[in-house]
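Hi Y.,

Following your request, here is the sequence exactly as I used it, all 329 residues.
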Amino acid sequence: MGAKVLFFFALFSFSAFSAFAENEAEDPGLVMNFYKDICPQAEDIIREQVKLLYKRHKNTAFSWLRNIFHDCAVQSCDASLLLDSTRRTLSEKETDRSFGLRNFRYIETIKEALERECPGVVSCADILVLSAREGIVSLGGPYIPLKTGRRDGRRSRADVVEEYLPDHNETISAVLDRFAAMGIDTPGLVALLGAHSVGRTHCVKLVHRLYPEVDPALNPDHVPHILHKCPDQIPDPKAVQYVRNDRGTPMVLDNNYYRNVLDNKGLLIVDHQLAYDKRTRPYVKKMAKSQDYFFKEFSRAITLLSENNPLTGTKGEIRKQCNVANKLH
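Below is the corresponding structure, written out as C-alpha cells. Let me know if you'd prefer a different format.
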C-alpha cells in the first residue's frame, strides 16, 4: 500500500513539475532580442521609423519619452495607454494626468510598418518601449539595451491612473513613494525627472505659481519670460500656451535640467522640491556636475520602468491596431 502511495505521489510530482517546466518554456518572460527568430528586423524597423518621424516632426521624440512613463507606471507596461475610449470605458489618453500627450497616430505608423514585415508578431507594448528608447537617442540621450517580449493589455486603466501617476503638485515624499513601489530608488527618480530637460510645460500647469502672485521661489530673472509665455491667469487650453522646460538646450536630453532647478528655474513644484529636499538634493547636485552619472542612472531607471509588471507568454494579446483591442475588431 505504501509503495503504491509513494508511486502515485512521485507520478503526481513529476506531472506537476513537467507542467511547470512547460509553462516556463512557453513564457520566458522579457528577454533580449525576443524577436530575433520570429521577426528579425523588428527593432531595426522601429529605429528607422522613429528616425524618419523625428525628421518630419521633432516633437515625436518628446511624445515617445512621455509614453513610456504614462503607460508603464500605471500597473503594467502593456500599452493600455494607447487604447481609445469606447462606449463603456474611458481612454487613459483622455484623463487629466495625460494632458498634453499627443502623436499617438504615429505609433500606428510604426505598427503598420511592422505588420507589413511580420503580421501579428510585434506587440504595441514593445513598440511603445522601443520607440521611447530610440526617441531618447534622437534627443542626444544614451542608447539603452532593453528587453522585449511584452504583450498587449485588453483594457484601459483610466480608473486607476491617478493612483499611480504622481501629479506635478504632489509632495516629493508622495512622488518618491510611488516610484519606490515600482522598484525605482531615489537616484532613479531624480534621473527620470531629468526628462524635464526636454519638451514643454503647458501654462495650465504653471499659472498657480504666477497668479495672483508670483511664487517667490522662482528665479526673478526667469519670471518675465514665463509671464510673457503665460499671460493669462486662466489659459485657454485650445490656445496651447506653454513654456519650454529648458531655454538653453530645449531639444537635448542633458543634465542642464539639474543646473536649472538648482538655480530656481524649475517650472513645476516637483522640480523645485527635487532641488531642495534633503533626500534628493545630493543626487541633483551630482547629476548637475556629471552628465555621465545622469545618463547611467537614467538608463537604469528607464530599464526598471520598462520592466514593470509586463504581460508575457500567453497573457494579453498582440493587437492588430494599437488603439483598439482585438476583440473589438
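Confidence is low (pLDDT under 50) at residues 4-24.

Thanks again,
Q.
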